[in-house]
Amino acid sequence: MDMPTQRGSGSLLVAWQLAGKNVLIVGGGEIASQRVDSVLVTDAHITVLTPSSGLNPRTQRFIAEYPTQITHLDKKYDNNPAELGLLNYDMVLTALDDVELSRSICQYCRDHRIPVNAADIPPLCDFYFGSQIRDGPLQIMISTNGNGPKLANLVKRKIVQSLSGNEGAAIQKVGALRVILKERAPGVGGDNGKRRMAWMTKLCNEWDMDELGKLDDDSMIKLLNEGWEKNHVPPPHALGIKHSVEMTFYPMLVNSILPSLIGFAVGVASCVWLRKK
Amino acid sequence: MDMPTQRGSGSLLVAWQLAGKNVLIVGGGEIASQRVDSVLVTDAHITVLTPSSGLNPRTQRFIAEYPTQITHLDKKYDNNPAELGLLNYDMVLTALDDVELSRSICQYCRDHRIPVNAADIPPLCDFYFGSQIRDGPLQIMISTNGNGPKLANLVKRKIVQSLSGNEGAAIQKVGALRVILKERAPGVGGDNGKRRMAWMTKLCNEWDMDELGKLDDDSMIKLLNEGWEKNHVPPPHALGIKHSVEMTFYPMLVNSILPSLIGFAVGVASCVWLRKK
Fold it and tell me: What Gene3D superfamilies does the record point to (chains A, B) (predicted)?
């Protein structure tokens, strides 16, 4: 039987939705502060359970800057899940030096189907974290499936270098257009749905991300009135959006024009030198 | 209060672990087949619940190729979760045209804390899927947080172009080295742990991914015996691993040398032409 070769030993990479949910983070060190940072973007309510003394400075700042979103329980976990109301949480993340305490929290969570991650104790985790990139609504995750974070970071660096930094803005504008289109031509599927999808596809094919990112409220309305309503996609310049010269000019300059100029100069210099000989 | 600007409306991107777990996929269309494809890499046991008639050909092939990993229940979901043993599943993914049926499955899952995703019904989902890239143990996910899949695919294309295709192999070799090192110098943390981490860091800094990917069993053992055991990191060529010239040569050729040669030729030709005038 011909088995495809890439199967197995992988994860299911998913974007977990936590808006309005309750997340418990147990621990006060560097990793716990990374967890707070990751969860803050999800609009979850976060409870940080750790004594104040020795609390990581970044976590302290988060607690101070987000008083409605983060609750700080200034105490240690005392192995009393009922008293803590552990069942009220939608997710638990532990980052403790005390492995046995982590294990005990994890076991309770698993018995009660509360998604849980314990830093440094992979077998107890429902899921792992990976390297993350964020640019507005664009989120990218890199996982090496337990083969180490260093190469995940090298891959992250390659990816960051390949992005212009405008992708988040482009995605946000496209999202806004989709919402307005749904108002102008409502309905799930059907003729309206097909027409919306076809027009959005054409737009994303004909404009580049940099141009999409430059849409503002006025040009978006103009794009819809002069484009969508007339069933075509105007070019960016028709809406006053210039193609970003610097995005292609400087790489072109360095990569092609400079070597050509240098080659030209060497060619002329060689010619002159040969004449003198 | 100075609020950082990037907060909110995001997801928690995680690598869900499903090895040995039970996943139920309800539906027989294109999306259900994508779900089977995604879950297969996790070593979960998959149950596909859908009538045979009209079953997507790709899902049919998966069922045939993975008879021990995939069970096909040839029937419709009849709104009887107890009879189906829904509580035995660790994750449920629905991809049905029947929105009410999806809703009913989702409600049951949420009441019983079974992680659930219903394609096309975002409010019912515990998590979303995104664009995926896989290269052996390397997995990358791109999420636009509900702002549309087209730009996610454009970002995916940029990322794929930025990768050499050797990253997966490099990560797999580094993972294997970590395992062998843990045998040679065991222990979590402590002096051995620090020494292992320092040496792996040096290796990942001094070798590039392409070189790491070329390690085989023999060169790995040689690397450890002549490197790790002597507390240094030998260069790749000392182990017979050549730097991949074609990885840098052809881009260099096209981007710099060719324009230089053309510039040189134009320089000489201009000189000769000016002499004749």
Answer: NAD(P)-binding Rossmann-like Domain (3.40.50.720), Siroheme synthase, domain 2 (3.30.160.110), Siroheme synthase, domain 3 (1.10.3280.10)
Q: What six digits make up the tokens of A195?
A: 């027409």
Q: What is the pTM of this model?
A: 0.85
pLDDT-wise least confident of A179-193, A195-209, B151-165: A179-193
Q: How far apart are CA A25 and CA A44, in angstroms?
A: 12
Q: B86 at the A interface (CB within 8 A)?
A: no
Residues B233-260, mean pLDDT to the nearest whole number: 77
A216 included as an active-site residue: no
B245 confidence band (pLDDT: 50, 70, 90)? low
Cα-based angle B117, A91, A62 (whole degrees, multiple of 5):
120
| Beta-carbon contacts of residue B91 (< 8 Å; ≥ 6 apart) | A12, B16, B18, B21, B22, B23, B24, B44, B114, B115, B116
Q: Regarding beta strands A127-128 and A131-135, do their DSSP bridges make them parallel or antiparallel, or are they unpaired? A: unpaired
Nearest chain B Cα distance for residue A36, angstroms: 11
The answer to whether A102 contacts chain B (CB < 8 Å) is: no
Pick among A147, A208, A266 to test the B interface (most B CBs inside 10 A): A147
**Is residue A115 domain-shared with residue A175, that is, in the same domain?**
no
Residue B255 pLDDT > 90, yes or no?
A: no
User: B87 at the A interface (CB within 8 A)?
Assistant: no
pLDDT digits (tens, 9 = 90+) for A118-149: 997 888 899 999 999 999 999 999 999 988 88
pLDDT for residue A172: 93
Contact B185, B227 (CB under 8 A): no
Distance from A101 to chain B by nearest Cα, in Å?
17
Q: Does some domain include residue A114?
A: yes
Q: Domain with A86 in it: what CATH number? A: 3.40.50.720
Nearest chain A alpha carbon to B209: A151
Residue of A191 and B72 predicted with greater confidence: B72
- Would you tell me which residues 66-85 of chain A have a C-beta closer than 8 angstroms to some C-beta of chain B? none
Look up the domain containing A73 and give its range.
22-129
Q: Is B200 on the interface with A (CB under 8 A)?
A: yes
Best mutation target, B12, B62, B154, to test chain A (most A CBs within 10 A) = B12
Which pLDDT tens digit goes with each residue over A29-53?
999 999 999 999 999 999 999 999 9
What's the pLDDT at A249?
61
Tokens representing B196 are: 């292992």
What is the total count of domains within chain A? 2
Q: Is A254 part of any domain? A: no
